[in-house]
Amino acid sequence: MINSSLSAGGNAHIFFRNFSQGKLDEAAGGELCLSPYVRGLADGTWANRVSHLRSYVTFTTYYGASDFPVQLGVLLRFIAFLGRGPYTYRSVTNLLASIRWFNSFLAPSSTKVFEAVLVKAALKGLKEQLSRPVRQKLPFSVEHLKCYYVLDFSDVKQLACWCAMLLAFFGCFRLSNLVVN
């Protein structure tokens, strides 16, 4: 289980308790020291990875699942959980890359979980689910000209709107050329 003492500095230590398969540094009193691995990372990258790990550990703690080494069922539930949130596909893949990166330090043989067919299928479905639909530019049609019956042509503003609509219709404008989203 991860302690909440994840820091975003250059002297980053991540403390573990009761972790049987981790590469623990016995000289540091059972602490897992990642500082040699982190020196090659920028501070912002390290802060992002720590943030990603916090979100994953919060998820596993809330649902009572084991966090590391990553298991296939937990990973699939986490991907489904991320699909319901305000994430884009790119941010989900970045988050999973951070978890995979950290998991490779603890149990290098368990990174095959991230290459499983079910994970790839879940990510493919997530990509389709989170994709933004292309907004169509609708034409200005005859249906829009039917507002003729409700306009008062003695009002200058309504007359100007009618002129703009006629120009849009005969000029083959799109609706987005006249109306703001």
Descriptive notes:
It is built from seven helices and two strands, in the order E-E-H-H-H-H-H-H-H. A two-stranded antiparallel ribbon has the order 1-2. It folds into two domains: 13-130, Tyrosine recombinase, N-terminal domain (DNA polymerase, domain 1, Orthogonal Bundle), CATH 1.10.150; 142-177, no CATH class. With 181 residues, it is mainly alpha-helical.
Q: Under the CATH scheme, which class of the largest domain?
A: Mainly Alpha
The CATH superfamily of the largest domain appears as Tyrosine recombinase, N-terminal domain
Largest beta sheet: what is the strand line-up?
1-2
Helix segment tally: 7
Uncertain runs: 1-31
Which helices and strands appear, and what pairs or packs with what?
Elements: E1 13-15, E2 31-33, H1 35-38, H2 43-63, H3 72-83, H4 89-106, H5 117-130, H6 142-145, H7 156-170
Antiparallel strand pairs: 1-2
Task: Give the tags.
7 helices; elongated; mainly alpha; disordered N terminus; 181 residues; 2 domains; two-stranded antiparallel sheet; DNA polymerase, domain 1
Short description:
The chain is mostly helical and 181 residues long.
